[in-house]
Amino acid sequence: MSIAGVLKFLFIAFEVVLLFNLVIIVHELGHFLAAKWRGLHVDRFGIWFGKPIWQKKIGDVTYCLGCIPAGGFVSLPQMAPMEAIEGKVEGPKEQLPEISPIDKIIVAFAGPLFSMLLAFVFAAIVWGIGRPVSEKETTTTVGYVHNEYPAAEVGIKEGDKILEIDGYSVDRFSGVSKHSIMWRIVSSEGETINVKVQRGEMTTNFVVAPRLPETKSYERKGLRQIGIEPAHVPMVAALIPNSPALKAGIQVNDEITAVNGVKVYHPAGVAKQLMQASNNPVEVTISRAGAAKTLMVKPEIPIGWDEPKVGIEWDATGKMSLLHPTPIEQVRGGIDAMVGTFSALFSSKSDIKPQHLSGPVGIMRIYYLLFESDQGWRLAIWFSVVLNINLAIMNMLPVPVLDGGHITLALINLISRRNVHPKVLNWVYQACAIMVIGYIVYVSFYDVQDLKPDKAAPPKEMKFAPATDAASNSQK
Fold first, then answer.
1. pTM of the entire predicted model
2. Is the CATH number 2.30.42.10 carried by domain 236-316?
3. Which residues fall within 8 angstroms of residue 43, CB to CB, at 6 or more apart?
4. CA 71 from centre of chain
């Protein structure tokens, strides 16, 4: 890796750590401020985990900076025994006064509340700067159908507009939403999926049996698929030197709309038409600055290849647009996504399992990939809206050591007017802490698999002979 590449990696890594830690620390800040407001003893306020590289006691609170950049914590010994996560309490807990259930509820709820408030802050920023959305995400038109996959077997074709999946109307291709084509497919529960499409003026229903891709034992299990890709305009990103496309006059940012009179909806559709044409000249219809133009392109065999090509590199995302959803729309969408995810997780018929969620490693990987893109900060801020909503809702689950667990036990105490025996409470919290940490390790194992470089052979370099060489070869 070059020096420039290393510097770019370090800068993106810094951005990832900064934003990820901001999300966690704001959540913990909510607990801290609520505890100070309600008069609780705050033992420590820690940013990052592990052995402290800096710490200072101000008043009764020890502020510290750990060596593992993965969030932070607030040590509140009057709330619950949390030594498994936060370390030993400095002072004797027995001397601390008992706090009321109402105080416990307020302090526990403050963390998720601050996460939701931060989600609204990020959502307001997205509302102003816009969220980049690709054509692939918002379309409901099938761009390409893979051969020998369920969709191809039942007769779904490129250009079909999907109206419903299993009776649910759809308005986008991707995303975790009840109106998303891919989510309806991966979260489906029956042996078959009913797909309603519009083809021209006709509406047709197809019954498709989804397929589970094969994965290795140490990888996440594959999710249901039927072998379709979203439509997006085949847009030229680059041209290979001396290529037939370059010679024919095709330019970067040209949009390919048809090949030999057949409308194309996806770069793979262009490749399919060219393969059928073999090395015969093909008529390529392009759109350039809104004007249609037809060019004749004669595929050639690149040096070291055995099949003809035209030498076009495609834009992977297609057309991009900026949406400006309101904060309410964004937060509602994030909540709907969480509800849909939990519904699938707790369904015995669903293929979506806890291993398909992401832990800290997976979240930081997502941030890194977003920052690598051209619209990095816009996408990262939008993802932070979703992440804060997830953090708020997940922490409200009634599991001891999570905020929802604190609230549940406080409500039991408030209703019964009796405290759970300290030894029982300690055992429950320690057991749940081990369970939560164990799950994080479990899901992080799968997250690490996603960090491994792709072992597939890199794409073969494509080179075309210069025009003079090509001409001389043809004369021979």
1. 0.85
2. yes
3. 61, 62, 75, 76, 77, 89, 90, 91
4. 20
